[in-house]
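dumping the sequnces here before i forget
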Amino acid sequence: MHIPFNKPFLTGNETAYIEQAVRSGKISGDGLFTKKCHHFFEDKYGFKKVLLTTSCTDALEMAAILLNIQEGDEIIAPAYSFVSTVNAFVLRGAKIVFADSEASNPNIDATKIEALITSKTKAIVPIHYAGMACDMDMIMDIANRRNLYVVEDAAQAIDSYYKDKPLGSIGQLAAFSFHETKNIISGEGGMLVINDEQFLQRAEIIREKGTNRSAFFRGEVDKYNWVDIGSSFLPSDIIAAFLYAQIENIDAIQAKRNTSWQAYYEGLKPLQDAGKIKLPFIPKFATNNAHIFYLVCNTVEDRVALIDHLKKQDIYAVFHYLSLHKSPYYREKHDGRDLPESDHYSDCLIRLPMYFELTEEEINAVINGVKSFF
Ligand SMILES: *Cc1c(COP(=O)(O)O)cnc(C)c1O
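..and the predicted 3d for all of it:
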């Protein structure tokens, strides 16, 4: 049975909405569907302000500009993450001070953050790995006491919660992704969430090439002008039309993914009990949005051989991330500290196939594939 790692799910309304956007005669940014998406996210999650972007990477770049990150500023972020989390800040000249992950899950170990703060530190950028919350009370407490900003990399964290708060609503800024590998997709796409009022006006300007065009369209200024730095971060309304068809189905998508996730967990639990693998650990304060189903092998040899074993059965499991502090681009710039937990996840973590249309039969085939290896 061929089981791919990911399969983008179409709800059925995508092309109809795209056609509607095209017929409306306005397919550049901030059209009808972009506004519908903004309202949806603001209403459902209580985000103060949402701006769709062309990617999560772009939303992070906007965040770095909004925080006025300058040459020499320091950013604290986990080494176990996607390159965009930190590249956005490196583009502004920042130095990244990498933090290690927790032993119990790949999220940043909040207890290790404070020791990394210097007079140059400007922000903490936690990522909610697999959509499961970092310890946000501890992170916000450190940030508030030490006068730092928090930018949540919530790329994987749509529709997930810390205590009762939606992820993305806690830091001053947050970035989400709608890349085709995420739960809710538009091919490429993302959004910036602005929870701190001081950034509202400037965010619109940066997103519109450094102009006050958004205010002009609302009739607040009589001509629009170049007022700040910026770039073109807004997506075409065609992308937003696709996205709207997805978010209309968000509850069904999340419910189905959760069922698949639970089935994996139950099926693989005996292997965890036997000490062969570790299954995801969900802290009490976190919900699970079933973005990723991962398991952690005991050794890198097991990991390599297990991926190979599954591949022979036409089942595609993958690994990621390679610790950023050891990447060809950053290893010379890293301060040399060992980050053993990050390295452990780099070596031993596997992501199993996870997508909306995954069937019970496929899930059982994957579970049996993993079991037959051990
Ligand atoms: C997917 C992802 C990104 C990048 O999202 P894009 O929309 O592809 O730019 C950034 N950070 C994390 C943690 C991700 O998983």
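The domain at 250-373 is CATH 3.90.1150.10 (Aspartate Aminotransferase, domain 1).
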